[in-house]
Design goal:
Length: 730
Amino acid sequence: MIFLEKAAIVLCLDVGFTMSSSAPGEESSLEQAKKIMTKFVQRQVFAESKDEVAVVLFGTDGTRNDLASGDQYQNITVHRSLMLPDFDLLEDIQDVIKSGSEQADFLDAIIVCMDLLQKETIGKKYEKRHIELFTDLSSPVSEDQLEIIIANLKKTGISLQFFLPFPVDVGDGGGDTSASVCSHVHRNSFPRKSLTEQQKEGIDVVRKLMHTLDEEGGLEEIYTFRESLERLSMFKKIERRPMAWPCQLTIGSNLSIRIVAYKSVTEEKVKKIWTIVDAKTLRKDDVQKETVYCLNDDDETEVQRDDTIQGFRYGSDIVPFSKEDEEQMKYKTEAKCFSVLGFSRSSQIRRHYYMGNQVLKVFAAKDDENAAVAFSSLVHALDELKVVAIVRYAYDRRCNPQIGVAFPYIKDAYECLIYVQLPYMEDLRQYIFSSLKNNKKCIPTADQLSAVDSLIDSMNLVYEDDDGETFEDLFKPSKIPNPHFQRLYQCLQHKAFHPNEPLPPIEQHLLEMLEMPCVVKERCQAPLEKVKALFPLKEISKKKEEKTAQDIFKDNSEDGPNPKKPKIEEEEGSFSIIKLAEGNVTSVGSVNPAEDFRILLRQKNADFKDVSQQLINRIDQFLENKGSQYYMKGINCIRVFREEAMKLSKVQCFNDFLQALKSKVEDKALADFWEIMIQDRISLITKDEAEESSVTSEEAEKFLAPKEKKNETLPPTEEGGDVDDLLDMM
């Protein structure tokens, strides 16, 4: 079993009187150091770290440590022994730790910290032991025991880090002036003359100490307060112990390889530690939750829990389904499983097929040479043949099996299979969209393609040096913490100390976390302007409202009730009960023919000619029935027919239909219906609307105009003849 590394850490803070002094409008060194310590402890608390933390203060008015005797190790206080960090420690740092009126040698403080680590880690196992010292180096320092300190630090394996209000290279012009990380950023903020002689002497001692401990990287363990605050601005992620999943990889009935798998990628979720407490006492024990079931009658008769059973809604009925039924229904497997069902070309497994909430890395079992050889052979064979294994995976006998893909992953340090879940039939979503290639209006020009290529190149997040070998990732998602967690921890920490205050605003670094890198933003400005020029956006003014068929056939009587408005086509994307039953639509019906037409066209292998003929038959039925309600349905069908024909490049099919419709309208004297067509401006599809059409705008406008009726000369009637005929009829 693999355990997480556990560390013992001592935070050693200088609280001497010089730490509390500051220039007007600036924070004191003590306040900055306490901020860094607070950030560090916050990270440890929310990350549920097993590291133990102690606090030692030097420069205090009193003395409390095991080494104090006579005038040795005075004004040094062990404020807190090694223990897990908690909110009590955060409160101490913020409210209890105050500036003292004395000074103490920071080398003496280091010796006290070493003594504490030695005594309090006896009999316990710690992978690492650290001392983190915060000071402004203003206190007197004696180098008498410097060599002894260095020897003991090396012997015990205790690491040391310094946190100063200034970079170490401002104190002396000699030596390695580039050793301090990011020191060039703050160099002008701390000119040489601003440091006291005592601080300059302290810098020399620190550099000598750290350089002797580690000639190559010792000076890199000296940090400025500002740099440390930037690094600690993110809450630390929760450390997870890798849990091994041992199993047998089987191929057929005769080949079995011992394997072990670990979660490599899985979605991290906030632990469900929310609880209901009494608003006044804030105690969980003061609140009890009780669920009671009652009959839906006047007396609300209570029903015992044993007299209830769960049910499954099946249509309008409730099907009883007990816990026993649920247990019997569950898929039962003999044991955990990682069985190869077969092999497939890697190109056949599309990237968008990857699903599930985890990725597993599968290795050969440890200390099994036969398994290692067999597993390595399988991985290399898959890699050389460019194939993947299709696997049946079951975590244990209680879990439903999954179908997944295992593909080879070979690195210099190790080799493994990476398992990702694949979808079942019900998990796939099939959508049909019109092809952009068939629409000539959507084909970009050479200049447009070149502009988009330049934009993509300028927004490349991987930087390559001139030699073509060195790469730098400008945007590393694997290094970006979840902003949701960061904000949650920020708010929880604030509420813990300030329960009656409103939450603080979101920190700026969280807002900037997912922004485009500055380098990329500057680099892509010119290509963006070119794209903007080649792909202009035009504002389309709203057309003047015209009369609709509803206005023509509405009841003009003011006293009578308003007629029910006929249902027109719903906006695309709106909710419709019909959409819930798309799988049941097999033909264009008479209730909602336009919607049926759309649904059928979206189905796989839909024949546009056949479906459109069904719609045409419905339109003919509506015209035969006559009446405003039927006319409105017919108009709606024609409008939808026109839209879908343009989307699917079936322009000629619609234009042929509309020309045939006009002939029918004229033959059957349906002038009132054609008047609606004119009012709604439903005409032939022009070549301005679709490249496939050969109809001009003038021809479409002329097409709507009805044929002029010939003026027939009626024979003259004799005066009074009409009256005589009327009397005869009576």
